[in-house]
Amino acid sequence: MPDRRPLLRDLIQTFLADYLRLVEPDSARQMWLEGIHFPRSGKLAEPEERELFQHGVVAEVPSRRGQIITVVVAVEIEPPAPEEIPQRLGGYLMDLGLRYGEPVLLSVVHLRGGCPGIRLESGVLAELCGIELVRVYYTCFGVEEARAEMFLERQEPLAWLFASLMRPRTRSPAEHRRACLEKIAGAPLEEEHREILRRGAEAFLAEVG
Question: In angstroms, rounded to a whole number, what is the distance separating the alpha carbons of residues 136 and 86?
Fold first, then answer.
């Protein structure tokens, strides 16, 4: 099975405003989503740059209070050991050269495995002699076993793309494929964006089916 992380990463970046409305709705309401910017930091060392930028999304989004929020979305095939996730996210923050106190919104997308759906998680980033010093909070999205029907009911086109990665509960695989592609075909999108979503959904549906 091909590694679908680069494809999903590109789709999340293209429709990042949709992603934030889906996965981080409370934060998204406080952001100016029309001002999303994708930096290419020269601070990153080559190995970290490959991992972070090829399998994840880094963006800067202005808030309605005038702050700049760094958004990091890591795309994983399967969840690693629980203690590895905060360490990995902490490493990304260090690689990005963020200063203490700068607002950061972290999320992890797991294509397979893990708890289904969207939930807030946290993990210890640093401790001393068994005493917790720093804890990192992030949103975790377990895609495969989430409810496809619920995502097809959302208004964000990216939600229908995510539905194509999920196993249907109330439809047959053929009905599910038709529902996903019909939603994308009827969306009020620019043709280029519609085609990007269609190609992505077809690739994912071929594997799920």
Answer: 6
Please give the backbone phi and psi of residue 122, each rounded to the nearest 5 degrees, phi first. -150, 160
Give pTM, 2 decimals: 0.89
- Asked if residue 208 has pLDDT above 90, the reply is no
pLDDT digits (tens, 9 = 90+) for 39-67: 864 444 444 445 555 578 999 999 999 99
CB-based contact 180:163 (threshold 8 Å): yes
Distance of CA 152 to the CA centre of its chain: 17
85 token code pair: 């996730």
In DSSP notation, 88-145 reads HHHHHHHHTTPPTT--EEEEEEESSSSSSEEEEEEEEEEEETTEEEEEEEEEEEE-TT
CA-wise closest residue to 111 among 9, 24, 19:
9
C-alpha span between 14 and 161 (Å, rounded): 12
Question: Domain ranges in the chain?
Answer: 1-146, 147-209
Burial pattern 28-48, b for ≥16 Cβ within 10 A else e, equals: beebeeeebeeeeeeebeeeb
